[in-house]
């Protein structure tokens, strides 16, 4: 199938839906007209796009955890606990890894093993195996919007079932849920699968139901420079808008330097609006989400709370619409519900204490914003040129050429030539630009910033800095100083 950034026509979409809904027995439980009616009876307090709009109007930064377990009643109890004890403003349903790879048979086994063991033997909620009615039990058991969080390159059936099940937000995208999650899924395929997902959301929107879409901002979550994640997020927003998506939350994973992270959030919304309007997609609701540090965490729970709180401070000062919260069990694995709630409570304490404070627009902040604008525009404009005006084709060709290049990505479709490293203040810079389309001014800026660190550490900038930075936060630092 020739990839083209064009809204799927309904004939094509209906035909494909028959095949998608037959790929697992629970697909038979999806009735789109009935699902639209179900959504229309949901209270506004449970509709993500509406609550985000209210938060954006009132300048509220909402907090949301990640959470998902194998058994339906345990998952419901977990979400209720995170809502009531943790104070979650939005709830997730994190989907298990088998489901993310369309391996529903193994997910089924995982459910049976969990029942036998009396605890979750899956690392998330196997929504496809449970089907529409079970999803509705989850949505009806809580009082806040629930979002599907996962990492699925082919999320067509997962979207059909969870959206019919009353979830009002769906995370991911054809690039952001491929490059960081798969070894060998061609971008032509994953982008095309996500055009289906977005066309489904567009169909809900055309029938009066608002479903929010959230491209996965952090990507590999390890020292990803803002302009790289912004370029991917904005391309996914443009592809989604073409399919009729009207509500988008664009994301960014914390890097750790305050000015750079605040600059990243402020430029993300601004650049998204700029490109969406430039390409004729006006009237979209754009919100932002900040992910607390996505890289290696300290094992020590007190130190982990330090990292979580620093993420909360940055989210508050960036005035981001939503912050995704980490837990003090991050270094160990799936958190207990108490640890998950603790991360939420620490975050909300900081958000509440900072809601009446703001960060002045200092010259450092302005410089970081200007650099991110220049870099992101350079990547996006080159991508469109490679695509000869088509964003989907451009994205595929940009990755092949290394015009978009995600650090530490497992995908063989990612060139993997760039190298990030922190500068002396911990901001993430480029040690190696790979094939990125950056001019001499941008390159000189990064080279000087890293040279400054080299002078301070009395060592030549090298790959060793990258390695030191990857382990730094887990060891209680930000910049990976030499021992
Ligand atoms: C994107 C990776 C992030 O998702 C988190 N995560 C993945 N699965 C779950 C899960 N089932 N419950 C809570 N957190 C989870 C993981 O700890 C990491 O912070």
UniProtKB/TrEMBL annotation:
Reactions catalysed according to its record: (2S,3S)-3-methyl-L-aspartate = L-glutamate
Binding-site residues, adenosylcob(III)alamin: 68, 123, 180, 297, 326, 330, 334
Single Gene Ontology BP annotation: L-glutamate catabolic process via L-citramalate
Record's keyword annotation contains Isomerase: yes
CC cofactor: adenosylcob(III)alamin
Residues that bind L-glutamate: 66, 100, 149-150, 171, 177, 181
NCBIfam families per the UniProt record, alphabetical: MthylAspMut_E
Protein name, as recorded: Glutamate mutase epsilon subunit
Organism encoding this protein: Carboxydocella sporoproducens DSM 16521
Source species taxonomy: Bacteria, Bacillati, Bacillota, Clostridia, Eubacteriales
């Amino acid at each position: 199938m020739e990839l083209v950034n064009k809204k799927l026509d309904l004939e094509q979409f209906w035909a494909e839906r028959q095949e998608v809904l037959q790929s697992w027995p629970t697909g038979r439980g999806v009735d789109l007209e009935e699902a639209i009616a179900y959504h229309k009876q949901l209270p506004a307090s449970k509709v993500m796009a509406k609550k985000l709009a209210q938060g954006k109007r009132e300048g509220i930064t909402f907090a949301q955890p990640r959470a998902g377990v194998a058994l339906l009643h345990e998952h419901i109890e977990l979400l209720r606990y995170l809502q009531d004890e943790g104070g979650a403003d939005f709830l997730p349903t994190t989907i298990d890894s088998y489901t993310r790879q369309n391996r529903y048979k193994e997910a089924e086994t995982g459910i049976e093993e969990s029942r036998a063991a009396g605890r979750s033997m899956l690392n998330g909620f196997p929504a496809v195996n449970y089907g529409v009615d079970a999803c509705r039990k989850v949505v009806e058991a809580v009082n806040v919007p629930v979002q599907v969080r996962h990492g699925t390159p082919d999320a067509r059936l997962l979207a059909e079932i969870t959206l019919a099940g009353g979830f009002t937000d769906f995370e991911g995208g054809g690039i952001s849920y491929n490059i960081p999650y798969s070894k060998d899924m061609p971008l032509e395929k994953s982008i095309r699968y996500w055009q289906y997902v977005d066309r489904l959301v567009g169909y809900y929107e055309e029938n009066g139901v608002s479903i929010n879409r959230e491209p996965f901002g952090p990507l590999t979550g390890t020292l990803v420079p803002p302009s790289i994640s912004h370029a991917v997020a904005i391309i996914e927003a443009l592809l989604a808008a073409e399919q009729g998506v009207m509500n988008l939350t664009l994301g960014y994973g914390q890097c750790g330097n305050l000015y750079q992270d605040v600059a990243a959030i402020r430029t993300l919304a601004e650049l998204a609006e700029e490109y969406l309007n430039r390409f004729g997609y006006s009237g979209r609701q754009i919100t932002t989400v900040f992910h607390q540090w996505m890289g290696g965490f300290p094992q020590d729970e007190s130190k982990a709370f330090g990292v979580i709180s620093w993420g909360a401070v940055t989210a508050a000062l960036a005035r981001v619409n939503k912050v995704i919260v980490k837990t003090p069990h991050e270094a160990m694995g799936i958190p207990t519900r108490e640890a998950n709630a603790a991360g939420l409570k620490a975050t909300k304490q900081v958000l509440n204490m900072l809601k009446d404070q703001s960060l002045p627009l200092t010259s450092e902040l302005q410089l970081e914003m200007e650099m991110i604008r220049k870099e992101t525009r350079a990547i996006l404009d080159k991508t469109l040129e490679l695509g000869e005006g088509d964003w989907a084709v451009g994205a595929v060709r940009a990755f092949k050429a290394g015009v978009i290049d995600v650090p530490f990505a497992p995908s063989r479709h990612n060139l993997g030539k760039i190298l990030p490293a922190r500068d002396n203040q911990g901001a993430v810079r480029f040690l190696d630009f790979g094939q990125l389309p950056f001019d001499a001014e941008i390159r000189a800026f990064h080279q000087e910033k890293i040279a400054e660190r080299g002078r301070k550490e009395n060592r030549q900038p090298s790959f060793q800095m990258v390695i030191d930075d990857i382990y730094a936060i887990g060891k209680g630092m930000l910049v990976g100083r030499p021992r």
